[in-house]
Structure formats: structure tokens, C-alpha cells
């Protein structure tokens, strides 16, 4: 398939554990976004990459959240010392550049449950 | 902070009925998008409206962007069970602020159930 893939699809973590969520964007897509979607809410922006450069991380809720995209393709969102309020679906989206940046293709998300 | 309010929050209708859902803001957006999200999946882009007053049709779905580019509506004619899902609107900021301008601001969505 040529879509955005995310892994794992489900993750259960005990409070205080570190987690790493992976995103494989559509091949050739320059732009990559991470969103957090709490239950019953719309997605909320976390961070944005253009190739390997993290150009906007204004949505990351705390310094426990860290994202990287070292080779401009696969991205990882890491959450350290997870808290219950981190429980949510984490969505990754990729898009082209120029006007195409707003045509974002979303992956299925990773549902994180912190117990 | 630009906020998008969607209404109604929940909507349950019989197959064959018509419906309209709304997306409103006090802020101006350069464009608005509509997505549909099914359980366990990511949102899928349906349409982007750019010009104030613009109307776009996608089969039985009609999307309208308000003249002032602050609101939008989605009208579905003769709803079918396959239309069931969460409908999200998302706005693109009209103010250029560098890389932050690429953020999409999402509403909370309208959860639509179409009963056969």
C-alpha cells in the first residue's frame, strides 16, 4: 500500500514508562505532521517537519514529548515518563510542498493508553 | 488562538433524509477543509474551499464557504448508511506566521449516524 502507516496500532503503557511511536509517510512526501486526538475531540497539532528539519514544535504539550525525522522519511514520536493525560490517539500525516502541504494524508493512528 | 465550533455534536437520522452540519469561527481563514473519519482510522480529506462564497459538490455532498471566510457548511442529500462517521472541519490560518502557518486547526467534529 502507498498510504501512511503507523506502528504500533495500540500501545498500553504503565505510568512513568517511555514510549516510541513510529510513522512511515507516503514516499516522496516532504512534509510530516503529528497530531494528538483525545477521545471525543478533533486532532490537535503537535509538530511539523519539512524533510529532516523540525520547523514547528509549538504544539508539543511538554518537554516529555520529543519527535525526530533524522533522514527525512520515517518519523518517531517519543513520550518520556508517560502520564494518564497522555492517553489519546496519535495521528501522523504527510503531504507535499507548496500548496500541496495542506492536502494531508493521515495514517490510522496509534492508540496510547496509559494505566 | 483560532477556534472552530462544529454543530451539532451528534446527529442520528434515517436513511434517505437530508442533513446539514455547520462549522463556525470568529476568525477568518484562508481556506477550510472537511474531513471524514471512521472508527480506528485517520481523517480522510473530502474537500478544500478557498474563496468566500464558494460552493463545491461531491456527489451527494455540498460544501459551502461563508462570504466572510469564517464559516462553512456541509449538506448531505439522501443520506446513506455509508455516510456514517465523524465529520471534521479544519481551518488554515489567514495570517502568515512562518512555519506555524502550516498548522491545521480542527473542530471537535459532528458524529453522524445514518440508520438503515
Provide an overview of this structure.
Chain A has 115 residues and is an all-beta fold. The model of chain A has no long low-confidence stretch (mean pLDDT 95). Chain B is mainly beta and 116 residues long. In chain B, the strands form two sheets. In chain B, strands 2, 4, 5, 9, 10 and 11 form a six-stranded mixed sheet that branches. Chain B has a five-stranded antiparallel sheet with strand order 1-3-8-7-6, with no helix packed on it. Chain B is globular. The interface between A and B is medium-sized, with 27 and 24 residues.
Give short descriptive properties of this protein.
heterodimer, A: about 120 residues, mainly beta, 7-stranded mixed sheet, 4-stranded antiparallel sheet, about 50% strand, B: about 120 residues, 6-stranded mixed sheet, about 0% helix
What are the SSEs and their pairings?
The complex is a heterodimer of chains A (115) and B (116).
Chain A: E1 5-7, E2 10-13, E3 19-24, E4 31-37, E5 44-50, E6 53-56, E7 65-68, E8 75-79, E9 88-95, E10 105-106, E11 110-114
Parallel strand pairs in A: 2-11
Antiparallel strand pairs in A: 1-3, 3-8, 4-5, 4-9, 5-6, 7-8, 9-10, 9-11
Chain B: E1 5-7, E2 10-14, E3 19-24, E4 29-37, E5 44-49, E6 55-58, E7 61-65, E8 71-76, E9 85-93, E10 104-106, E11 110-115
Parallel strand pairs in B: 2-11
Antiparallel strand pairs in B: 1-3, 3-8, 4-5, 4-9, 6-7, 7-8, 9-10, 9-11
Poorly predicted ranges of chain A: none
Taking all residues together, what is the mean pLDDT of chain A? 95
> How many helices of chain B?
0
Mean pLDDT of chain B: 92
For the terminal residues of chain A, how far apart are their CA atoms? Answer: 33 Å
The major β-sheet of chain B equals: 6 strands, mixed
Q: Supply the helix-strand structural class of chain B.
A: mainly beta
Q: Write down the Rg of chain A.
A: 13 Å
Q: Largest sheet of chain A at a glance?
A: 7 strands, mixed
Using DSSP, what is the number of strands of chain A?
A: 11
Gyration radius of chain B, to the nearest Å?
Answer: 14 Å
Q: Please report the distance between the alpha carbons of the first and last residues of chain B.
A: 40 Å
Approximate shape of chain B:
globular
**What fraction of the residues of chain B are assigned to beta strands by DSSP?**
over 45%
Strand content of chain A: over 45%
The number of helical segments of chain A is 0
| Shape descriptor of chain A | globular
Number of strands of chain B: 11
Identify the most extensive interface between protein chains.
A-B, 27 and 24 residues
Amino acid at each position: 500500500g502507498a498510504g501512511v502507516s503507523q506502528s504500533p496500532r495500540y500501545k498500553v503503557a504503565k505510568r512513568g514508562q517511555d514510549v516510541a511511536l513510529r510513522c512511515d509517510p507516503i514516499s516522496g512526501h516532504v512534509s510530516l505532521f503529528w497530531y494528538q486526538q483525545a477521545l471525543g475531540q478533533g486532532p490537535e497539532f503537535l509538530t511539523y517537519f519539512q524533510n529532516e528539519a523540525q520547523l514547528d514544535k509549538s504544539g508539543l504539550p511538554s518537554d516529555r514529548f520529543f519527535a525526530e525525522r533524522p533522514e527525512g522519511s520515517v518519523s518517531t514520536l517519543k513520550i518520556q515518563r508517560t502520564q494518564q493525560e497522555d492517553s489519546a490517539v496519535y495521528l501522523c500525516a504527510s503531504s507535499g510542498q507548496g500548496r500541496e502541504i495542506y492536502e494531508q494524508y493521515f495514517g490510522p493512528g496509534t492508540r496510547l493508553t496509559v494505566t | 488562538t483560532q477556534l472552530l465550533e462544529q454543530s451539532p455534536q451528534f446527529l442520528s437520522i434515517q436513511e434517505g433524509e437530508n442533513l446539514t452540519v455547520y462549522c463556525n469561527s470568529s476568525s477568518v481563514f484562508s481556506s477550510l477543509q472537511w474531513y471524514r473519519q471512521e472508527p480506528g482510522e485517520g481523517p480522510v480529506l473530502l474537500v478544500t474551499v478557498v474563496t468566500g462564497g464558494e460552493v463545491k459538490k461531491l456527489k451527494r455532498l455540498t460544501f459551502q464557504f461563508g462570504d466572510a471566510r469564517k464559516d462553512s457548511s456541509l449538506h448531505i442529500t439522501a443520506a446513506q448508511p455509508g455516510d456514517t462517521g465523524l465529520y471534521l472541519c479544519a481551518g488554515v490560518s489567514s495570517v502568515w506566521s512562518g512555519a506555524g502557518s502550516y498548522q491545521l486547526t480542527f473542530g471537535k467534529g459532528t458524529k453522524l449516524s445514518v440508520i438503515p
